[in-house]
Amino acid sequence: MGKLDIRNLQKVFADGDRSIVAVDDLYIDVDDGEFLIFVGPSGCGKSTTLRCIAGLETATEGMILLNGDDITRQPPTERDIAMVFQNYALYPHMSARKNIAFGLKMSTDMSKDEIERRVQQTAEMMGIEDLLDKKPGELSGGQQQRVALGRAIVREPEVFLMDEPLSNLDAKLRTTMRTELQNLQQNLGVTTIYVTHDQTEAMTMGDRIAILDGGELQQLGTPLECYYEPANRFVAGFIGSPSMNFFEVEYADSALVHDAFRYELSQATREELVGREGPLTLGIRPESIEIVDAGSSDDSIRAPVSVTEPMGETTYVYVDIGDERYTVTLDGERVVEPGTTLDIVIPEEKMHLFDAKTGETVKSRSVSAATNVDVNARA
Ligand code: ATP
Question: Model pTM?
Answer without folding.
Answer: 0.91
